[in-house]
From TrEMBL, chain A:
GO terms for biological process: methylation. It catalyses: a 3-demethylubiquinone + S-adenosyl-L-methionine = a ubiquinone + S-adenosyl-L-homocysteine; a 3-demethylubiquinol + S-adenosyl-L-methionine = a ubiquinol + S-adenosyl-L-homocysteine + H(+); a 3,4-dihydroxy-5-(all-trans-polyprenyl)benzoate + S-adenosyl-L-methionine = a 4-hydroxy-3-methoxy-5-(all-trans-polyprenyl)benzoate + S-adenosyl-L-homocysteine + H(+). The gene is coq3. Its EC number is 2.1.1.64, 2.1.1.-, 2.1.1.114. O-methyltransferase required for two non-consecutive steps during ubiquinone biosynthesis. Catalyzes the 2 O-methylation of 3,4-dihydroxy-5-(all-trans-polyprenyl)benzoic acid into 4-hydroxy-3-methoxy-5-(all-trans-polyprenyl)benzoic acid. Also catalyzes the last step of ubiquinone biosynthesis by mediating methylation of 3-demethylubiquinone into ubiquinone. Also able to mediate the methylation of 3-demethylubiquinol into ubiquinol. NCBIfam families: UbiG. This is Ubiquinone biosynthesis O-methyltransferase, mitochondrial. The lineage of its organism: Eukaryota, Metazoa, Ecdysozoa, Arthropoda, Hexapoda. It comes from Gryllus longicercus. Mg(2+) binds at E161, E164, H165.
From TrEMBL, chain B:
GO terms for molecular function: 2-methoxy-6-polyprenolphenol 4-hydroxylase activity; 4-hydroxy-3-all-trans-polyprenylbenzoate oxygenase activity; FAD binding; oxidoreductase activity, acting on paired donors, with incorporation or reduction of molecular oxygen, reduced flavin or flavoprotein as one donor, and incorporation of one atom of oxygen. Coiled coil: none annotated. One of its GO terms (cellular component) is extrinsic component of mitochondrial inner membrane. This is Ubiquinone biosynthesis monooxygenase COQ6, mitochondrial. It is found in: Mitochondrion inner membrane. FAD-dependent monooxygenase required for two non-consecutive steps during ubiquinone biosynthesis. Required for the C5-ring hydroxylation during ubiquinone biosynthesis by catalyzing the hydroxylation of 4-hydroxy-3-(all-trans-polyprenyl)benzoic acid to 3,4-dihydroxy-5-(all-trans-polyprenyl)benzoic acid. Also acts downstream of coq4, for the C1-hydroxylation during ubiquinone biosynthesis by catalyzing the hydroxylation of 2-methoxy-6-(all-trans-polyprenyl)phenol to 2-methoxy-6-(all-trans-polyprenyl)benzene-1,4-diol. The gene is coq6. Pathway: Cofactor biosynthesis; ubiquinone biosynthesis.
Amino acid sequence: MIVYLQRLGTYHLHKFVRYSHSQSTVIEDEISRFNRLSMVWWDEQGDMKPLHSMNGLRVKMISGGLVNSGRIKEKELKQPKPLTNIKLLDVGCGGGILSEALARLGAEVTGLDASEALITTAKHHASQDPHIRNEINYVCNTIEKYSEEKPKAYDVVVASEVVEHISEKKLFLESCVQTLKPGGSLFVTTLNKTYASHLAGIVLAEIIWKILPQNTHDWEKFITPQELESILESSGCKTVLVSGLFYNIFTNKWRWTQNTSISYALHAIKR
Amino acid sequence: MASLKTISFFKILFRNGRCPFLQIKRDCHSTTVQKKFYDIVIAGGGMVGTTLACKIGMLEKLSDKTVLLLEGSPEKEWIFENRYSNRVSAINPSTKNLMESIGVWKHITERRFKVVKKMQVWDAISDAMITFTSDEKFSDIAYIVENDLILASVTKQLKHLNNVSIQYGAKVKNCVLPQSGSSEQVSVELEDGTELKCSLLVGADGASSLVRKTMGVQYLSWNYHQMGIVATLRLSEPTDNVVAWQRFLPSGPIALLPLNDELSSLVWSTGTEEAKAILKLSDEEFVDTLNEALWKQYPSDNIVNSATKHFNSVLEFLTLTSNAVRQLQPSIVSVESKSRAAFPLGFGHSTKYVAPGVALIGDAAHRVHPLAGQGVNLGFGDVVALTNQLVDAVSEGNCVSNINYLLRYETLRQRHNVPTILVIDGLQKLYGTTITPLVVLRSLGLQLIHSVPPVKRAILNHASV
């Protein structure tokens, strides 16, 4: 029952971005356009539901990973802001679903996305919560260019549900690692390149159940944990944890699993 | 996809997936004046609302959240008196745990409370009875505490907290809730014109909740056409008063809750007209009427008698006999002057407890007959469940008003509250009749439960969480 509903969300979003672009010059003013885009991203029960529901797991993976790497103490997890003083880069932040969560936990978050529309949406949404209004620095740029500006600047770099859309994986990951301080942590969540992920993500979701529009997924762009680990190793990172992720579409819940054949998370530490 | 979500059985029963009455107003005017913002505003400073404020304020995970408690009545200084208040609650062990967790239980023990070690419930028109006794396996059955003492103790604790403020004399006039999926805040307007903004508004404003009305949810309710008469009673002779008594009369249940060795508190549910008449009696007449209600022998029905007798021999044959013997209820010698009062009884249940930016707790969400002493315990159970979800939401980097966590609170509580209130309502109706087959049925049922320890334990466990 594992279906990548977040692709559905992304698809709707792109459609929506195009739609609203064409409309903007005619009737809709900028603010209401982003208001609506923000509603698409931020409706907890809407299209982006799986990404919202994944947040709890992602946040625990990052805070738990930082305890394992010794960057924060376990007892700090009990405090309201356990990630205080952590400089964190969220690569491919989209509408800011994960960036906001990490900022609420005290991290100094930079949200990076190449889409201007998404960055504006993310900024607009964050401005509504007084707790994080001034806490997130959203930047519209590519990681390749941004990493040249900010080498060795971050304690943590997160690339969640992004790598599977990238063709130049080596360049992308090297750039991510470049922005990390030595000893810093890289967290990645993505899709495995297996028959199982092909079956669940493409055959079942796109062809049989038609939950996703066809061609949402490009299986060729998926990556195995071994490949990912090897690229990271050559970029100077040691992988400390790989764990499978399971999404149940009926309960809208994610959980950890031993099985990495469909979706997985990886934690690597820069040497 | 919402339809695919696992929806609890009771939700299917009690919810109209699409609520035609749901009306959401949008905050259209953007004011230039910055309104005061709180993370959580609690409307209603009764026992349950105040306890929620205290619990939130004391949790480390929520320590950076600002909380405002709004209470409609002016601040009253609570002065401890020797005279007992006529309004008491039978709080269960879970509620006691909650009180301990927020450091309030010590304030209560410093003053006074009474442990209930045994409960005896019996039928006025048959021989059927049931007893619950605390032993090593069961914790205490309940604790009888005055409502004023609970409220004063929680308030005392609350005043030490920096992140919680209380505003007395503050009645909510109007609130505007965010649209589903939007990240807007809740606007609250008070009767004095003050305007507030918050992420989460909690309706703890009682059975006729304004917050619930603003949510526009369906509210299932009916009137029992009964009133609950309360009074403080003096027993005819001092005893080791540790038993809670309840006798089911055809006109309604009468309960005695121990306060100390000499005094017990009365909760007597009876028809509205009769209750009004009873209130008008002199103290002496009242005591006579009360003793008659406690002791009167109703003409027994032969069918009922032989049914219970035969059923008893079957139970004996199955070696399912309970050793518990029927204890004789106390007699009342006098009533404390001016301690008599009465309040109307009704049933109510909100089909939804939450909506974007808002949650209901306590009587705002559910109202029950006092016959099982569960009303306030259900409300305190809501406090525990809601704060657990708020902690989870915040731990996972979410805003306190995140709807997924609110929905989880609703599911968890409805799974507990709905069966509880339905059973209580069912008992109210079952014992309100003198129709022979129903009397037989309820008598045999009671005998059976009384004789099967696991069933009894299950009931006690349900009532104590």
